[in-house]
Design a protein that fits this description.
With 828 residues, the chain is α+β, with helices and mostly antiparallel strands. It is built from 27 helices and 25 strands.
């Protein structure tokens, strides 16, 4: 068997075996039964040394090894054969800390996010503004910040620290804000000095300095609450994994719901009394009085203090004439704790309250990949090596003096055993392929594995025909519906996340159509590789403060683009399945990797190809049935990838025009594409820019031009409201999905209906969405307005922001249909 002595169990079980394939006796009995049935009336007497029985026994023994390996722990089957480690991301078995957290959904989610990611924020409150408070616009928040003492908002001489923290909060919010939501206003809470006076009777055994520190800490926390964080181990007690990762991912400590107290707008003095009386060592609280700066009165036990707007009460923790306002007494008289000692202990209490934790270390420990053993799953030892030497088929062979008839008998028997050897060797190869099958790779260019018997079967060379490996590969490939089986494996992996992709209905393709399955596999693979963002960020809006982050788009665009690709490819009727994906770059016949020393040159000097594609004439966008002559030069007929082998990381992204760049090497125009692993590939060398652009566009059409989709959130257009005098309804929970539509798509009502359905089903239910289909010229003008608008949003010039918003709003409104004509195609 394959286990090492260190992994063998200390005892052998005597009960039933866990799988019939492990039961040698049962396999042998079944083999004898089948032999008797197949032999019919002809049956010779035999004994346990009969060669036929020996052969059956050796084959049954080999079968038990196959079952034994197949029952290895899943981690062993998926482990890297070199390192013995399971790469969860490679297998698309994303760890809990990646798969379960989501973009903030609730107000508490937003609070946790800011508290976790902005260090100097002691507390934060998000209050939804009513439309009446926001010029009729819904979906805006009032953010109120409480900063820690070293970022004191009461600094009269230098406001830069405050501005810096506000900027950090806005940046963090913009990166995680929900679709059609935004900041209405943001402010830092002022601190109103507050003094609490009382006489407190403490136990004789209590340490006065400790009690004084705990009184000041508890009162300060009640007046200006700050949440306490926990380690993963402590927070996880009594919680399921899904409960632990409910909401945004926390990295500096987990915050329980009871720590997220509402913003205090009033404080009952009686509550302060209860807080003090509940502390250890306190036996009685008397003469409780509260004084608030700016208030004309002092507050007693029956009073309620109204907290000034946009403020928090900040407890005075110092001394007056060496005495604390809270007087401690015990049976021995008045206690006078040392102020320095009290301050040190108070600081320790606040440090513990504000303590953060490195959750990444705990996440990796508790939710890392399972332990695995390094296995050579495909390794196979020929069954012929198990036969006694007298048979002459094992590695020892026959004696040198054996006569030719005896050698012929041995070879005949070896030939008889070779089909069994081939089947067994292929079975073990298939077991070694499991790691690739159950991954986004889905097996690569094959889903059935085989291996040559050369080097496995002793003295096999004379029995192998010329072209044995080639013929075997052809046989296996002939019964391997690669795309169909890949779709099944990818569908299973998607189902682990309750996700599913199906080809568009009425696509005009049968279910057994290889092209249709190829389209589906590409979409499934794209979704699986982006599963974390596609699910966690589905409600995330566009990060207008950092447009380059997440490629500048909203979260729902990920799945929407993938499904729109399916719709578009079914309409185009063309797909890059004419190419064969390969996992090894050296096997690729299309494209070549850019040398390592030239990668930097591409990054720094080459220009995005997308800007050149925008300037192509309209007729270039129509799909071509064959070759044609353009103004820029000849374009080859047929599929540009036909007959080629393309590296899988490159083929997966070739439909995305944003990954292409163009530049010069010497006097040659070079087009490159960045693959899924971040490496650049040369995919074309041309004599002119125009030929390079047209040829690359033809390639993009062939592999399925990644649908150009842009979501415009009307909430972010609200800066135009003072200029338009529109009511807030236009800017409230509405967005426009702008899609490019080529002429043949514009005339295809079925395609447009499907595209609209895809956009709507991926839009959160509370948001109204309208699709706007633009032709090439309309898309070019939209890009101009949209780019200018994005730049204005990132700047601090209100006038420019309003003007850019107005121009984009007017452009969209001028091209929106009346209600009865929804879906019409717009030109320029």
């Amino acid at each position: 068997m394959s286990d090492t002595p260190a992994t063998l169990p200390a005892t052998l079980p005597t009960g039933p075996l866990p799988d019939d394939g492990l039961d040698y006796v049962a396999l042998r009995e079944e083999g004898v039964r089948l032999t008797q049935r197949l032999s019919g009336r002809i049956w010779t007497d035999y004994n346990f040394s009969d060669p036929g029985v020996t052969t059956l026994e050796q084959l049954c023994f080999s079968l038990t090894e196959l079952s034994y390996r197949a029952l290895y722990p899943i981690a062993d089957l998926l482990a890297d054969p070199r390192s013995g480690q399971v790469n969860l991301w490679r297998q698309a078995l994303y760890p809990a800390y990646a798969a379960l957290p989501t973009n903030p959904v609730t107000v508490d989610d937003l609070r946790r996010l800011v508290l976790d990611r902005v260090p100097h924020v002691a507390n934060v409150w998000f209050t939804p503004l009513t439309p009446d408070q926001a010029e009729g616009v819904a979906g805006l928040y009032d953010i109120q910040l409480y900063l820690t003492a070293d970022e004191d908002c009461d600094c009269a001489t230098d406001r830069r620290p405050v501005a810096r923290e506000v900027t950090r909060v806005l940046d963090r919010y913009a990166a995680h804000r929900a679709l059609c939501e935004d900041v209405g206003r943001i402010g830092v809470l002022s601190r109103v000095p507050t003094e609490v006076s009382a006489t407190v009777l403490i136990a004789n055994e209590a340490d006065p300095a400790q009690v004084q520190a705990e009184l000041l800490f508890a009162l300060g926390l009640r007046l200006a609450p700050e949440p306490k964080r926990q380690t993963l181990k402590r927070y996880a007690a009594g919680r399921t994994t899904s409960d632990i990762f409910d909401g945004p991912l926390m990295v500096r400590g987990l915050i329980d719901s009871d720590q997220l107290q509402p913003l205090p707008t009033s404080v009952a003095v009686a509550d302060l009394l209860q807080v003090m009386a509940a502390l250890p060592g306190v036996t009685l609280v008397q003469d409780l009085t509260v004084r608030v700066a700016g208030a004309e009165q002092s507050y007693g036990e029956d009073d309620v203090i109204a907290v000034p707007e946009d403020s928090l009460l900040r407890l005075f923790t110092g001394t007056v004439a060496g005495k604390f306002p809270i007087r401690l007494v015990n049976a021995n008289g008045v206690c006078r704790p040392d102020p320095d000692k009290v301050q040190r202990r108070l600081n320790r209490l606040w440090d513990e309250q504000r303590r953060t934790y490195d959750l990444w270390a705990e996440y990796r420990e508790d939710y890392g990949p399972p332990p695995a053993l390094r296995r050579d799953l495909a390794a196979y030892t020929s069954v012929q090596d198990q036969f006694p030497n007298v048979y002459g088929v094992n590695a020892y062979g026959l004696p040198a003096h054996s006569p030719p008839p005896r050698r012929g008998q041995a070879r005949q028997f070896k030939g008889y055993l070779m089909p069994f050897d081939q089947l067994m060797a292929d079975y073990f190869s298939q077991l070694g392929l499991i790691r690739d099958l159950f991954s986004p790779k889905a097996g690569g260019d094959a889903t059935y594995a085989w291996q040559s018997l050369r080097g496995i079967v002793p003295d096999v060379e004379p029995l192998l025909r010329t072209g044995y490996e080639t013929g075997l590969a052809d046989i296996v490939a002939s019964v391997d519906p690669v795309a169909q089986r890949q779709s099944g494996f990818l569908g299973f992996l998607l189902s682990l996340y309750a996700e599913r992709l199906i080809p568009p209905a009425n696509s005009g393709r049968s279910e057994d159509d290889g092209v249709a399955y190829g389209m589906l596999v590409r979409a499934q693979r794209a979704l699986l590789r982006r599963m974390v963002r596609a699910t966690a960020d589905r409600n995330r809006g566009f990060d207008y403060r950092h447009p380059a982050r997440h490629a500048g788009g909203a979260g729902m665009e990920i799945r929407t683009r993938i499904e729109l690709d399916l719709v578009s490819l079914s309409a185009i009727g063309d797909y890059g399945q004419d190419a064969t994906p390969v996992s090894e770059p050296d096997r690729a016949t299309f494209g070549r990797l850019v040398d390592a020393d030239q990668q930097v040159e591409v990054e720094e000097r080459f220009l995005p190809l997308a800007r050149f594609l925008e300037d192509l004439p309209e007729e270039t966008l129509a799909p071509q049935a064959g070759g044609r002559q353009s103004d820029a030069g000849p374009v080859a007929a047929g599929h540009p990838l036909a007959g080629h082998r393309v590296a899988e990381p490159l083929l997966d992204v070739m439909a995305d025009a944003s990954r292409y760049r163009i530049g010069y090497w010497s006097k040659t125009v070079v087009v490159v594409c960045r693959d899924a692993n971040g490496r650049w590939w040369v995919i074309g060398e041309h004599t002119s820019v125009s030929i390079a652009v047209v040829t690359t566009h033809h390639l993009l059409r062939a592999v399925g031009f990644r649908r150009r989709l842009t979501l415009v959130e009307h909430t972010l257009l609200r800066y135009a409201q003072p200029l338009t005098q529109d009511d807030g309804g236009y800017y409230s929970f509405r967005l426009t999905a702008v899609l490019h539509a080529a002429p043949h798509e514009a005339s295809d009502t079925d395609w447009r209906r499907k595209a609209e359905a895809v956009v709507r089903q991926n839009t959160p239910a509370h948001i109204a969405v309208e699709c706007l289909f633009l032709d090439h010229e309309g898309m070019r003008r939209f890009r101009e307005h949209h780019t200018d608008w994005i730049r204005a949003l990132t700047q601090a010039d209100p006038a420019r922001r309003a003007e850019a918003s107005l121009r984009l709003q007017r452009f969209l409104q001028s091209r929106h249909e009346p209600a009865h004509g929804r879906g019409r195609h717009h030109g320029h």
